[in-house]
C-alpha cells in the first residue's frame, strides 16, 4: 500500500471526528451507553432543494440543509453558512458543536446548524435575497423563537438575517424578530453582536493568559482568516490587551511583519481592495505558512481542518485560540497537547457570538433593548465563568481543554435528558 492510500484510508469526515471526540469523552466519564448513543447522532436533519432564477434568466437548483442536533436544553440554535464546500457532514458536526457550545455557556438552548451549497461571492444581492427567502420558505415550519433560531455564520450577514426574518414573519403573519439573531440593529439586532465572537475570544485569551502567567502586552499574534471574527479579534487584542498583531491572512493569502501591523489599517485596506495581500510594508505568507510563524498566540479564524497531523509539529505558538469552528483535527490535538501548546477549543473560544445572540433573543422576546456596555459586561461574565468551569474539569480529569469542555457539555445535556425523563 502506498503512503497516499494510507492517508486516504485514515481520512474521516468532520462529523466522524466529532463522534470520535464524543466517544472519547464518554469513555473518560463512563457515560451511560444509552445517553452516549443519543448524543452521537443528530436528532433531526432537513434537506431541501432550492430553485433560483439567476440574473441571466437561468434556473439553478441549490441544495440546503438544517440539522437540529439536540434540543434537550431548549430550542435549537446555530448559524447558517453559505459555502461552496458545504456538506451534510460539516453541518452535522457544526450542529453538534453548537449543542456543546450552548451547554458550556449555560444558555437555554440546544444546538443546530444550517448550510446552503453556494458561492455568495459570485452571486448578486438579488440572487442572495431570493435564495435566502426560498430557504426559509422550505424550512419555516421547523423554525421559531421556541423551536429553532438561526443566526449568521460563514458568508452570511445581518442583511441576510433581515431577509430571512422578514420571510418568516410574512409566512407566519406576525412580526417575529425572535426567530433569528444577528439582525441589523434597527431590526431588533443587539448592540455588540457584530464583534461578539471576537470579543468573547479575547476575554478567554485574557483568562488563559492569567492562568498560564503569560504576559499579553507585546505578545505576538497571528490571525488566519480576516473576516468578521478574525479582524475584530486582531483589533481588540491590540486595543484592549496590548498584543502585537504580526500576521493576518484571508482566502487569497497573508501578510507578515515581525514589527507589527496596524489591524485597523489592514481592515480598511481589505475593505478597499478585497484582500489583505499587498498591504504595504509586509511580506507575503501563505495560509499554511501563517500557522507556523514564530508567535505567542495563533488564532485560526477561517475554516475547519487547518492544523492537522501534518503541520502540528511545526506550530510554535504557546496558545492556539480557535475562533473558527473545527480548525484542529483530533490527530493534531494530541500532538499539540503533548508539546504543551494550550489550545482553547472552538466551542469555548468562539462562544461569544451565540452568547450575544442569546442576549438579542432575550431582548426581542421581552421587547426591551440593552445598552452596549451591559452586553459587554454580561458577555465578559459568561465567558469568564465558562472558562473557569472548563479549567476546573481540565485539572480534575487531567485531559486537554477540549476534552474538559466536552465533559462539561455532556454532563449538562445528559442531566436535563435524565430530568425530562428521556432516558
Ligand atoms: N454561527 C455562530 C457560531 O457558530 C453563532 C451562532 C448563533 O449566534 O446562533 O457560534
Q: From N to C, what is the helix and strand string?
A: HHHEEEHEHEHHEHEEHEEEHEHHHH
User: Uncertain spans, ≥5 residues at pLDDT below 50?
Assistant: 1-9
Number of domains: 2
Report the CATH C-level class of the largest domain: Alpha Beta
Structural class: alpha/beta
Determine the CATH superfamily of the largest domain.
NAD(P)-binding Rossmann-like Domain
Question: Tell me about the biggest sheet?
Answer: 7 strands, mixed
Number of strands: 12
- The pLDDT mean sits at 95
Within the largest sheet, what's the order of strands? 9-8-7-6-10-11-12
Number of helices: 14
Give Rg in angstroms: 21 Å
Give the cofactors and ligands.
glutamic acid
What's the end-to-end separation, in Å? Answer: 45 Å
Can you tell me the CATH architecture of the largest domain?
3-Layer(aba) Sandwich
Share of helical residues: 40-55%
Description:
Helix 5 crosses helix 6 (158-172). The termini are far apart. The protein is built from 14 helices and 12 strands. The chain has 2 domains: 43-187, Rossmann fold, CATH 3.40.50; 196-349, NAD(P)-binding Rossmann-like Domain (Rossmann fold, 3-Layer(aba) Sandwich). The chain is globular and about 55 Å long. A 7-stranded mixed sheet has the order 9-8-7-6-10-11-12, sandwiched between helices. Strands 1-2-4-3-5 form a 5-stranded mixed sheet. The chain has 423 residues and is of the alpha/beta class. Glutamic acid binds at residues 77-79, 101, 151, 153, 181-182, 325, 350, 353-354, 357. The site of glutamic acid has 13 residues, from strand 3 and helix 12.
Amino acid at each position: 500500500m502506498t503512503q497516499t492510500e494510507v492517508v486516504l484510508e485514515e481520512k474521516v469526515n468532520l462529523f466522524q471526528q466529532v463522534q470520535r471526540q464524543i466517544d472519547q469523552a464518554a469513555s473518560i466519564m463512563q457515560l451511560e451507553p444509552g445517553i452516549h448513543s443519543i448524543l452521537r447522532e443528530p436528532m433531526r436533519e432537513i434537506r431541501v432543494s432550492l430553485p433560483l432564477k439567476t440574473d441571466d434568466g437561468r434556473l439553478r437548483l441549490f441544495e440546503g440543509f438544517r440539522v437540529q442536533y439536540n434540543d434537550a436544553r431548549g430550542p435549537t440554535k446555530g448559524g447558517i453558512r453559505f459555502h461552496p464546500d458545504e456538506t451534510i457532514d460539516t453541518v452535522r458536526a457544526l450542529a453538534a458543536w453548537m449543542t456543546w457550545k450552548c451547554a458550556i455557556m449555560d444558555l437555554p438552548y440546544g444546538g443546530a446548524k444550517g448550510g446552503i451549497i453556494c458561492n455568495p461571492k459570485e452571486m448578486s444581492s438579488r440572487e442572495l435575497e431570493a435564495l435566502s427567502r426560498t430557504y426559509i420558505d422550505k424550512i419555516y415550519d421547523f423554525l421559531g423563537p421556541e423551536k429553532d433560531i438561526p443566526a449568521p455564520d460563514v458568508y452570511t450577514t445581518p442583511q441576510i438575517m433581515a431577509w430571512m426574518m422578514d420571510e418568516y414573519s410574512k409566512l407566519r403573519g406576525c412580526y417575529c424578530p425572535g426567530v433569528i439573531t444577528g439582525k441589523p440593529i434597527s431590526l431588533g439586532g443587539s448592540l455588540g453582536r457584530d464583534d461578539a465572537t471576537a470579543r468573547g475570544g479575547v476575554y478567554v485569551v485574557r483568562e488563559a493568559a492569567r492562568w498560564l502567567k503569560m504576559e499579553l502586552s507585546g505578545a505576538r499574534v497571528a490571525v488566519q482568516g480576516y473576516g468578521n471574527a478574525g479582524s475584530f479579534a486582531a483589533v481588540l487584542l491590540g486595543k484592549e490587551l496590548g498584543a502585537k498583531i504580526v500576521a493576518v491572512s484571508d482566502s487569497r493569502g497573508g501578510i507578515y511583519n515581525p514589527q507589527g501591523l496596524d489591524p485597523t489599517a489592514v481592515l480598511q485596506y481589505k475593505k478597499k481592495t478585497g484582500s489583505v495581500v499587498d498591504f504595504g510594508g509586509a511580506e507575503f505568507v501563505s495560509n499554511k505558512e501563517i500557522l507556523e510563524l514564530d508567535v505567542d498566540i495563533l488564532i485560526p479564524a477561517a475554516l475547519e481542518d487547518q492544523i492537522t497531523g501534518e503541520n502540528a509539529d511545526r506550530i510554535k505558538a504557546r496558545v492556539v485560540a480557535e475562533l473558527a469552528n473545527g480548525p484542529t483535527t483530533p490527530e493534531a490535538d494530541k500532538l499539540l497537547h503533548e508539546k504543551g501548546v494550550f489550545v482553547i477549543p472552538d466551542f469555548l473560544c468562539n462562544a461569544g457570538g451565540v452568547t450575544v445572540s442569546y442576549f438579542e433573543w432575550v431582548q426581542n422576546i421581552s421587547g426591551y433593548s440593552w445598552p452596549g456596555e451591559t452586553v459587554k459586561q454580561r458577555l465578559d461574565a459568561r465567558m469568564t465563568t465558562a472558562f473557569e468551569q472548563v479549567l476546573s474539569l481540565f485539572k480534575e480529569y487531567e485531559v486537554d481543554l477540549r476534552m474538559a469542555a466536552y465533559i462539561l457539555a455532556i454532563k449538562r445535556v445528559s442531566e436535563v435528558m435524565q430530568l425530562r425523563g428521556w432516558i
